[in-house]
# Entry
Amino acid sequence: MSGPAERWSGREGTVGDATVRRALPRRGHRTVGAWCFADHLEGRGVDIGPHPHIGLQTVTWLLEGQVLHRDSLGSEQLIRPGQLNLMTAGGGVSHAEETPPGWSGHVHGVQLWVAQPSSTRDGAAAFEHHAELPTVDFGAAVATELVGPTSPARRDTDHLGLDLDVRAGRCEVPLDATHEHALLVLTGRLRVGGESFASDELAYLPPGRAELVLDAEEPARALLLGGTPFPETIQMWWNFVARADAELDEAATDWNAGHERFGRVASPLARIPAPGR
# Structure
């Protein structure tokens, strides 16, 4: 099965000092596998003060620059290109993303969220950093496996995240035909099934494909996100992923009241209050 890919375009906004283009979520299609959020960001820095999460994992991946992560678990971790930060929120966690002291360069990367299934979404928070990740060659592309069967990163569902560093030429990436996939172009331009996709365009591929063929006339960079279609209906608002409005309201109230479920972050940045719904 290899029909044309569905084209989605990112919506532009601002986070800290960075410009972001948001590819996920979108109306009518909130998840791709368990992936429920994708922000492609570029700017002079990030600097997002302490804020909370529930029911999700944050996945931070940089192409350029540095970001300092601090969280309510006591983690303080500098991340550089080629390294992975993954934070599991469970029933509640808070964190800040900062421009490291003395850093004044360009930052280019992606912030992703993964919805946690009901079996783990009320569990304990956790943080992990992976300085090295597995890679594999697919013709003209080198794929780095952020999350997947051979990555050391935690997975609560059957999902996959690959960074594709594509040289000029053709690459053929094997797919699990039971998964749905989305290819998010970060730099350059890629042809998918004869159609051209530019930076910040996403090619959505429903289940049924056993292979993704990409052609590039010049170097390009893209993320391939996929997984088993998420079996639960999620509610997303602000920084929370839940199953009901009441959970979102409770999380916002708890955060604004300084509830212990979200802990404290040792960050010099101002704490961000939950907005009204």
About this structure: The mean pLDDT is 95. DSSP finds one helix and 24 strands in the chain. The domain at 10-227 is CATH 2.60.120.10 (Jelly Rolls).
